[in-house]
Every structure is written in structure tokens, then in C-alpha cells.
Write a structure and sequence with these properties.
Layout: E1 8-10, E2 26-28, H1 43-50, E3 56-60, H2 72-82, E4 89-93, E5 106-109, H3 114-118, E6 123-128, H4 132-140, E7 145-147, H5 154-163, E8 167-169, H6 178-189, H7 191-205, H8 211-224, H9 241-244, H10 247-282
Parallel strand pairs: 1-2, 3-4, 3-6, 4-5, 6-7, 7-8
Length: 283
């Protein structure tokens, strides 16, 4: 299948990766999922947000991690932390109908229009599990983040957050401790994160074509060529598995070493045998 691959479209962006060489048929087209425009929020959410003194915080652990499955002690610690910021209102994606002990400045919803929330001018912070699409959305809408990774690429993405200076990250084990308060204060009150995410957002958006147009252009390019784009394919596509794994090179390098060891063994064996025979004759 690799040999037949004419084009690889990657949904990532270079700003989230380390610079490295790639083949001509590998094209970064992320983020593909962000629409040109967002929708107004539901009336109840908009009213809630407008009642905040300094803005609002959006808290979501994504679709693969259920906030409702958190341990009771962790849940209580999170709510206690959020209650310490009464000047902000918090919208928490919560998968059940209700939650006990909810502070006055927190509301929960089973489903939320994430991109519409991130595009809102009063948002101040996004607490996320660190999925790639959530990270792309935060950068696109210029929202500082706190990453709380759980699995997969989230751990890498969480470290990207600190590397490009758009927020902080913390381990899930620390979510119910004072470290959550420390991280929230750090991102809310340190203006460098807001400035950095605006800078990074402008870099990501500064492209010759938007991601969808780029993806369409390259797909059409391959189709117009009838799939015959061998000039874009790396030579390793034509290598056998033996060559691809470098076993031919390994064999060339290993052969002299094997011959040297074998020669040494024969030399020592011959010398030992003759020495033994000579000693027997002497006796």
C-alpha cells in the first residue's frame, strides 16, 4: 500500500511539530475542520456569559474522557478550585443531567458548541485534554489553554502548549490539587500567554491558501496526472523489505566483523592444537 501512495495529507500544522524533512508528496493541510464563520451561542449561554465580571472559562475533557467518571474527591477539588474565581464564569462540559455542589459561577452542559464558545470575545481560558483538534481550535480563535493530557498524542500536544508559549499543562494526577489553582492563575493573570497565542494564530493563518483549498488543489493535481506522480515519491517506495529495513547495509558491515572473529577463532584453535601436540610429544 505504501508503494501505491501518491499523496499524504496531514491534518497537522508545522507550528505544532518540530522542523524535519518530509517528502514532496506529504502536505500539511491542518486545520481542515474549522469553518469560515461561527454561529451565535444559544440565548441562555450568551446571557450567562454576559453576566460575568471578567469573562468566562471553558472546561472540557473532550469526547473520549467523561468528566462525570472522575472520582468524587477529584470532582469536589475541581469545583472548589473553580469557586475561587468568582469574577469569572465557568462552562463545564458534563455528561450527566446535574452535579452536586455546583458553585454559583459554574454551569454544566451535556453538549456544547465548542468552536462557537472559543470564538466568543469574552472567553479567557480553555481547559482541555489536549487533543489535536481542540489545540488547533484554541490557536485559531486565540484562546490561552491549560492542557490536562490523558493518553495518545495528548501528552505530546500538552508539551507543545508550553513550547510555543500559549499556556501550561499539568498531569491528570494533579488536577485535584493546588496545582490547578496555580495554573489557572498563571494563565489568567500572565498576559504573555494571550500575546503568544495571538502571535501563533497569525502564523498559522498566514498561508497562501486556506487548508481546504490546499487539500483540494493537491488532490486535483494527483487526479489530473492520472495518479502518475512518481516525481513526488521517495525512492524508498521501490525498495524491497530487505533493503527498506537496511539489512543489506547491516550485512555488509557485519560480514568483516564475522570474518575477523572467525579468523581469530581459527588462528587460536590452530595455535592451541599445535601447542598441545608439541607438549604431548615432549612428554
Amino acid at each position: 500500500m505504501v508503494q501505491n501512495r501518491s499523496l499524504l495529507l496531514s491534518s497537522s500544522s508545522w507550528i505544532f511539530e518540530y522542523a524535519r524533512p518530509v517528502f514532496p508528496n506529504t502536505i500539511h493541510v491542518g486545520p481542515l475542520h474549522i469553518p469560515d464563520t461561527t454561529k451565535p451561542l444559544p440565548e441562555d449561554l450568551e446571557k450567562w456569559i454576559q453576566g460575568a465580571e471578567k469573562g468566562f472559562i471553558y472546561f472540557s475533557l473532550g469526547s473520549n474522557v467523561r468528566s462525570a467518571s472522575l472520582a468524587e474527591s477529584t470532582r469536589s477539588a475541581i469545583l472548589a478550585t473553580l469557586a475561587k474565581f468568582p469574577e469569572y464564569r465557568i462552562i463545564w462540559k458534563w455528561e450527566e443531567e446535574s452535579i452536586d455542589g455546583l458553585p454559583n459561577n459554574v454551569i454544566c452542559r451535556k453538549w456544547l458548541p465548542q468552536q462557537d464558545l472559543l470564538a466568543h470575545p469574552r472567553i479567557k481560558l480553555f481547559i482541555t485534554q489536549g487533543g489535536l483538534q481542540s489545540l488547533q481550535e484554541a490557536v485559531h480563535y486565540q484562546v490561552p489553554v491549560i492542557g490536562i493530557p490523558f493518553f495518545g498524542d495528548q501528552n505530546y500536544n500538552a508539551r507543545v502548549i508550553t513550547r510555543i508559549g500559549i499556556g501550561t499543562f499539568m498531569e491528570f494526577e494533579d488536577i485535584g490539587t493546588a496545582k490547578l489553582v496555580k495554573n489557572v492563575k498563571e494563565v489568567l493573570y500572565n498576559e504573555s500567554y494571550s500575546a503568544n497565542v495571538k502571535r501563533v494564530s497569525s502564523i498559522v493563518k498566514n498561508q497562501m491558501m486556506n487548508p481546504r483549498d490546499t487539500a483540494v488543489w493537491w488532490v486535483e493535481y494527483v487526479l489530473k496526472a492520472g495518479g502518475n506522480v512518481n516525481h513526488l515519491k521517495p525512492e524508498y517506495y521501490h525498495l524491497s523489505l530487505f533493503q527498506y529495513l537496511g539489512l543489506d547495509v547491516f550485512a555488509v558491515l557485519l560480514t568483516p566483523a564475522v570474518l575477523l572473529v572467525y579468523g581469530g577463532y581459527r588462528l587460536i584453535s590452530t595455535y592451541t592444537r599445535r601447542w598441545t601436540q608439541a607438549k604431548l610429544k615432549t612428554n
